[in-house]
């Protein structure tokens, strides 16, 4: 190796890193402004972009559940400052999708980040195709993982993370605030957004997304929600949408159960993929028409993993 190539090597490396950084920053959407609302006691919900964030204030510091996209980091810290001067201490991920855990890389230097072991493993494996909204975003690996259950005790308050099984992914945690009887469900439960005028009403559960490539399961989903429903709670922070109730989660679980039975019966009766796609578009509102088979496209993610879903329903 000549002296010249030795000298050039770091320059080439810097060029590659900065080129991919430019590609990443140029494809990013701007962050939408966040808002904060009180849920109960010292528990707040931050929303406005990505998944809902729970913000729990204690006398010893703040615990967050999820941290949205990478682009939302500064605004999330501003929301913490707006309600307390206590330091941020812990971030618990409901799962690894980048609209929920996308800020982990920026949180790791300032807080302990905790996730289910499967959520961390999914981040390590970083499967391609990557069914996320912002591929190329820097990934932060949680330092602490758990299997079935773990708790953070801070300022005399408990925040507990439960893993009840597969559903949206293989690593979905239900976060429980026992003192307040509130749970954060991540994307295992999605609140019904107020529909656009004239849009057909969909049964609860229609808006789910089974991320088969990251261990999700439509058939296990209901059992996992039954685990969540075994907890004593009355108020729910959903993965997306407004603050909800335990009855909303029950209705969602019933909707998923009906969908499981219907789709499984159709698949086992030998219904063609084309006909199945028509059914899910008409009855559940999953977008398929106009969706490319690849790469992963916002609004098309469930359709783009339809073969994997059919394979699961055939079992
Ligand atoms: Zn998700």
What is the tally of beta strands?
13
Instruction: Label the structural class.
Output: alpha/beta
Helix content: 25-40%
Low-confidence stretches: 1-8, 10-26
- Straight-line distance between termini: 57 Å
Q: What spatial form do the alpha-carbon principal axes imply?
A: globular
CATH class: Alpha Beta
**Radius of gyration, rounded?**
21 Å
Instruction: Supply the CATH superfamily name.
Output: Ribonuclease Z/Hydroxyacylglutathione hydrolase-like
- What is the CATH architecture descriptor? 4-Layer Sandwich
pLDDT averaged over residues: 90
**CATH fold label:** Metallo-beta-lactamase, Chain A
Heterogens: zinc ion
Q: Number of domains in the coordinates?
A: 1
Total of DSSP H or I helical runs spanning 4+ residues: 10
Biggest beta sheet summary: 7 strands, mixed
Q: How do the strands line up in the largest sheet?
A: 1-2-3-4-5-6-7
What does this structure look like?
This protein has a single domain, classed as Metallo-beta-lactamase, Chain A, CATH 3.60.15.10. It is α/β, with parallel strands linked by helices and 315 residues long. The model is unreliable at 1-8 and 10-26 (pLDDT under 50). The longest helix has 25 residues, at 3-27. The strands form 2 sheets. A 7-stranded mixed β-sheet has the order 1-2-3-4-5-6-7. It has helices at 3-27, 73-83, 98-101, 104-107, 117-125, 218-229, 246-268, 273-284, 301-304, 306-314, and strands at residues 35-40, 43-47, 53-58, 61-65, 88-92, 112-116, 144-146, 149-154, 157-162, 174-177, 182-184, 235-237, 244-245. Bound molecules: zinc ion. Residues 95, 97, 100, 168, 187 line the site of zinc ion.
């Amino acid at each position: 190796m000549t002296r010249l190539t030795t000298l050039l090597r770091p320059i080439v490396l810097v060029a590659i890193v900065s080129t991919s950084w430019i590609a990443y920053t140029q494809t990013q959407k701007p962050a939408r402004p966040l808002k904060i609302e009180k849920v109960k006691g010292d528990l707040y919900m931050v929303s406005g972009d990505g998944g809902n964030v729970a913000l729990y204030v204690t006398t010893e510091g703040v615990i967050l559940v999820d941290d949205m996209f990478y682009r939302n980091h500064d605004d999330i810290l501003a929301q913490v400052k707006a309600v307390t001067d206590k330091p941020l201490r812990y971030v618990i991920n409901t799962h690894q999708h980048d609209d929920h855990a996308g800020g982990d890389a920026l949180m790791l230097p300032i807080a302990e980040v905790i996730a289910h072991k499967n959520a961390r493993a999914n981040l390590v494996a970083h499967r391609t195709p990557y069914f996320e909204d912002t591929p190329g975003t820097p990934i932060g690996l949680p330092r602490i993982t758990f299997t079935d259950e773990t708790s953070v005790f801070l300022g005399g308050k408990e925040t507990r993370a439960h893993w009840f099984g597969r559903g949206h992914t293989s690593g979905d945690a239900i976060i429980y605030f026992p003192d307040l009887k509130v749970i954060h469900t991540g994307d295992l439960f999605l609140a019904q957004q107020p529909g656009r005028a004239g849009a057909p009403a969909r049964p609860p559960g229609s808006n789910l997304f089974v991320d088969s490539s990251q261990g999700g399961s439509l058939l296990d989903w209901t059992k996992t929600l039954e685990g969540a429903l075994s907890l004593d709670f009355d108020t729910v922070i959903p993965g997306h949408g407004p603050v909800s109730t335990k009855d909303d989660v029950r209705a969602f679980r019933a909707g998923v159960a009906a969908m499981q039975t219907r789709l499984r019966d159709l698949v086992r009766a030998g219904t063609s993929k084309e006909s199945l796609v028509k059914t899910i578009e008409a009855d559940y509102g999953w977008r398929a028409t106009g969706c490319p088979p690849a790469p992963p496209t916002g609004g098309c993610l469930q359709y783009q993993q339809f073969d994997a879903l059919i394979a699961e329903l055939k079992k």
